[in-house]
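The instructor's notes for this session suggest beginning with a concrete chain rather than abstract definitions. Hand out the sequence below and ask the class to guess, before any prediction is shown, which regions might be ordered.
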Amino acid sequence: MRLIDLSRTITHKMPRLPNHPMISLSEFTTHAEKREAEGYAFSSAVMLLNMGDHSGTHVDAPRHFDERPGAKGIDEMPLENFFTEAVCLDLSHKPLKSDISIADLEAAVTAAGVEIKPRDTVLLHMDHYRRTWGTEGYITDFPGLTKESATWLGKFGITAFGVEAVSPGRPGRNNFEVHHVCRDMGFTHIEGLVNLEQLVGKGRFRFIGFPLKISGGTGSPIRAVAWLD
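After discussion, reveal the predicted structure:
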């Protein structure tokens, strides 16, 4: 068994979309504070973490973009949705700020020699993290799906797809249309992945990405992992 960590490290003021809360990480108690219990001396350290439910590597819940009564929060989604069979498609040749078309996805499936099956998680390697991390372009310059290409994926009956970027579609209309495709077709997506280049050419594997059980959450950070036999 080989596990590949697909998750970004959560750090103080890490990059995020401006309409989401800033991530704040600080010391709450430190080992400089000595304590005593029944004559026994010790110290303990605790961190304080403040962030939104779409921070770092995370998954969206239906209620994020579905205003209808009864739209599920993250705590209501089946755990089986976060432990699935998966494939990774190589789209690293796509220029930054470009759209991923149906033809791009079809060619990537052929090149990978895989079949997208119902309830799969489909990971899309766009080489975005390597090309833009540490620059302002990380938030804006990624390739992205369109309404048409997201719909093409959804017709396979997938559980989710995942990207390295902060959004599944290019900034603006495309992004909101892709979110609504997920809403209307009953699947979701994962944002903020890393290390997808390690999955290119690996065929089928297991994807693990359990969310926190946040009451009514519109999404949740996950520890995304690929499990290769």
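Then share the key points. The two ends are 5 Å apart (CA to CA). The mean pLDDT is 97.
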